[in-house]
Amino acid sequence: MNVLTFDSNEKLNETGANIIVGLVQTNPRAVLGLATGGTPVGVYEQVVNDFKQGLVSFKQATSFNLDEYVGLDAGHPESYRSYMKHHLFDHIDLPAERAYIPNGNASNLEEECARYDERIAAAGQIDLQLLGLGHNGHIGFNEPAHALIRGTHVVDLAQETLQANARFFNNIDEVPKQALTMGVGTILKAKMILLIVRGADKAEIVHRALTGPITTDVPASLLQTHPHLVVLLDREAGRLMA
Ligand SMILES: O=P(O)(O)OC[C@H]1O[C@](O)(CO)[C@@H](O)[C@@H]1O
């Protein structure tokens, strides 16, 4: 595991973007696993800057998003499809037909999950999986549980997650109670994992996830088993790391 801590958000964003852009420069057909939430916004901004400067093209790349809410219209401003369009897809040349996000409005969600896993398998291994971290240690929307699920599945969001994500909605009652998420098995199969965490409120969970026991109670702790994990932290999130 390679943990880097940054004093400046700008440097953190640049480093995150350099990893993504560098991969696609050397492997234009790269398969990217993408995340949403507040954490990666600055990194995507920097990726867009690099694209606009002609440093990289995503024309041959493929992406798979980690998760999507159940029951939000794809056009709803807080759907993860809207988020991805707003922060990344509308500004780069990644073909829309290869920018996959699970469909949280599918009439049969189990079938949609199976289809999503088939598409990931057909694309080959995910080369780089970008991750944020939930306050409860979730990755994607894999919430703490007695057992974690390998593939894409429907998940009931934890109360902490509903509370954390209420900031994106008018109130907590508007936050969808369920989501589709890639499973931990798929995440761990990625060739490289890039975990990004910001903020003092995540210092404790960062410490538990990266140095504590490996347990399904802290899904991110399973990342300790990954052979190629890079972690980018801002100073506050890295406060408890020696
Ligand atoms: O970056 P945030 O908004 O703190 O969210 C943490 C994580 O939880 C999620 O919202 C759930 O997948 C992720 O998108 C994010 O990485």
UniProtKB/TrEMBL annotation:
Reactions performed catalytically: alpha-D-glucosamine 6-phosphate + H2O = beta-D-fructose 6-phosphate + NH4(+)
Gene Ontology CC terms, in alphabetical order: cytoplasm
Stated family: Belongs to the glucosamine/galactosamine-6-phosphate isomerase family. NagB subfamily.
Gene Ontology BP terms: carbohydrate metabolic process; glucosamine catabolic process; N-acetylglucosamine catabolic process; N-acetylneuraminate catabolic process
Pfam family, one: Glucosamine_iso
Pathway field: Amino-sugar metabolism; N-acetylneuraminate degradation; D-fructose 6-phosphate from N-acetylneuraminate: step 5/5
NCBIfam families, per database record: nagB (TIGR00502)
Class of the enzyme per the UniProt entry, highest EC level: hydrolase
Assigned keywords, A-Z: Carbohydrate metabolism, Hydrolase
CDD domains linked to this entry: GlcN6P_deaminase (cd01399)
Source organism of this protein record: Cohnella zeiphila
Enzyme Commission identifier(s): 3.5.99.6
Protein name: Glucosamine-6-phosphate deaminase
Residues of the active site: D67 (proton acceptor), N136 (for ring-opening step), H138 (proton acceptor), E143 (for ring-opening step)
